[in-house]
Amino acid sequence: MDDRYLPEDNNNAGGEASDSLYSYNCRDKEQCGATHEGDYYENRDRMSDQTEASQTDGAENEKAVFADDTGEKKETEKENETVSDGMEASEGTAGNGDFSYKTETGTPVMNDASQHAKKVKKSVIKRAWAKKGFGPAVAKCAVLAVVFGVVAGGVFQGVNYVGNSVNGQSQSAAVTSSTNGNSGNSIGQTNVSASSTTQDVSGIVSEVMPSIVAITNMSQSEYYNMFGQSQPYESESVGSGIIVAEDDDYLYIATNNHVVKGATTLTVGFADDSTATASIKGTDESTDLAVVSVEKSALSADTLSAIKVATLGDSSKLQVGDSAIAIGNALGYGQSVTTGVISALNREVTTTDSTDGSSVTNELIQTDAAINPGNSGGALLNMSGEVIGINSVKYSDTDVEGMGYAIPMATAQPIIDELITREKVDESKSAHLGISGVDVSSEVSKTYNMPQGVYVIQVSQGSAAEAAGIVSGDIITKFDGHGINSMTSLQNQLSYYSAGTKADVTVQRSENGKWVEKTISVTLGSKAS
User: Fold this and answer.
1) For residue 428, pLDDT beyond 70
2) Which fold has domain 423-526?
3) Which of the two ends of the chain, N or C, has the fewest CB atoms closer than 10 A to its terminal CB?
């Protein structure tokens, strides 16, 4: 190769751009016929001599041998660079991997193909970047790539979160497992529940419905006409009940006291739409509970095969948020089903009887399962189909929605069992206490800061109450462990006791401006005495 041509240096100072892989510049003005002015060729000589020194970037160098017209061999350093995979070998040598250079005389000099097949001169690449503005473009692309990565990652996480939410999963579950304990000043994180709520309650309802009954109460009432004259009339009210026990002769149905109060006749409707007459077995006004009985002999074989005794559950195991089902004779239209949850436990609720003004205060279960007029005495069920409460009352107000209440079975069951087993004594043998009293209703109790119960106005001389130490001004709140809130409830309790038996009477007595509770043992007397 003519030594007028040398490989171009990395910087291409003053040189002309070339499209070839390696470019050459003329060193001899006269031989090349170039027209460059000044010290261009001296500068090119100096830069050519500095070529080897400038290649210090750590790349491996190789020796390329070029022959001039005189046969003298010269060596120059060529920098190793990676050739793109799509580069072709020249002069048809791609097949064997040789990369060839030609002098102007046409004499080829072959170099090692294994080295040149993947080499490219750095200066060409650098020059291309400088001409095209490729460096800044790459920088911009890098920034855009980072931004795109952040945005894409966020979108991916968001989509993943939504997907998990749709599938009933939560990303916080994984976090919870490692952060639900306290450390330092941080507080624990709530655990994600794996429990699910059964939405279809048809199976439960079909099993329990045969144990639920409708109760119709016919009672006598009076009204006054415009002339002030009283006239009796018959009124009808409806409620519900639960078959809770049976023996050889009777079915026993639990309900609310206010459902059967004042009844002249009671009619029970069963799941097969048959009806039967019922009688009051026992009542407990203080807890608003009652038991009515129906003779089995009055029922057909078909009815007996269609009805069932309910399974009673343990309300003490309830938790707020548990699912609940209410069944009852809403509005007297027949049995209907509503669902909800246990909203609260041990709610202290006071209810007042509109007929006589008597009131009852108890701790009840609160639920948002709809409880409407006629549901009273019906069943509140858990998701196992067990009766955990007896529906009792609904809070009704224009500002209130979904607040119904039920008597817990933990409270009701002992009283129901006692009402079933206890027998009233013959009136000629029934016990007598010997006091005259008035009811202290919830309104009076709040107004005058008095305990609710029966206020003793007078104690009969020589009576059992006088002998035991009960005095005028005492307020009777319990009789033998049963709550007393009216004279009616006190008389009802006395009907189960015969003369001569002992019972504990709990009274509240005013001492130094404070009400003090006292329990007095009384040997009950006889009405005849």
Assistant:
1) yes
2) Pdz3 Domain (2.30.42)
3) C
Tracing tokens 């040398």 back to the chain, one arrives at: 6
The three-state secondary structure class of 459 is strand
Domain chopping of the chain, boundaries: 5-131, 134-175, 203-306, 315-418, 423-526
CATH fold match for the domains 315-418 and 423-526? no
Mean pLDDT, rounded, for 500-528: 93
- 275-284 and 230-246 beta bridge pairing: unpaired
- The domain defined by 315-418 folds into Thrombin, subunit H (2.40.10)
What's the pLDDT tens digit per position in 474-512? 999 999 988 898 898 899 899 999 999 999 999 999 999
188 or 467, greater pLDDT: 467
Q: Which of 430, 434, 432 is nearest to 465 (CA)?
A: 434
Cβ contact 173:167 at 8 Å: no
Between 35 and 403, the higher pLDDT residue: 403
**pLDDT single digits (tens) 308-349:** 999 999 999 999 999 999 999 998 888 999 999 999 999 988
Rounded to 10°, the helix 134-166/122-132 angle is 80
Q: pTM value?
A: 0.61
DSSP-assigned states of every residue in 210-236: GGEEEEEEEEEEEEE-TTS-EEEEEEE
Q: What is the pLDDT of residues 217-227, one digit of tens each?
A: 998 877 777 77
DSSP letter string, 7-67: EPPSS-TT----SSSS-EEE--HHHHT----TTHHHHHHHHHHTHHHH--SSPPEEEEEEE
Distance, in Å, from the CA atom of 284 to the CA atom of 360, rounded to the nearest integer, reads 11
Top-level CATH class of 203-306?
A: mainly beta
Give the C-alpha separation, 279 to 266, whole Å: 7
Using a 10 angstrom Cβ sphere, with 0-12 exposed, 13-18 middle and 19 or more buried, the burial of residue 93 is middle
In what helix (H) or strand (E) does residue 260 lie, and over which residues does it extend? helix 257-260
| Cα 15 to Cα 19: distance, rounded to the nearest angstrom | 13
Dihedral, 26, 27, 32, 33 alpha carbons, nearest 10: 110
Residue 173's pLDDT band (cuts 50, 70, 90): very low
376 is annotated as an active-site residue: yes
Contact 285, 485 (CB under 8 A): yes
What is the sign of the dihedral through the CA atoms of 329, 333, 337 and 342?
negative
Q: Does the pLDDT of residue 31 top 70, yes or no? A: no
Q: Which of 376, 441, 445, 486 is catalytic?
A: 376
| Active-site residue, selected from the candidate residues 288, 353, 368, 439 | 288
Position of tokens 């007896």? 390
Question: Does residue 508 sit in helix, strand or coil?
Answer: strand
What are the DSSP calls for 397-411, one per residue?
A: -TT--S-EEEEEHHH
More confident residue, 64 or 382: 382
C-alpha–C-alpha distance, residues 312 and 310, integer Å: 6
pLDDT-based confidence at residue 406 (cuts at 50, 70, 90): very high
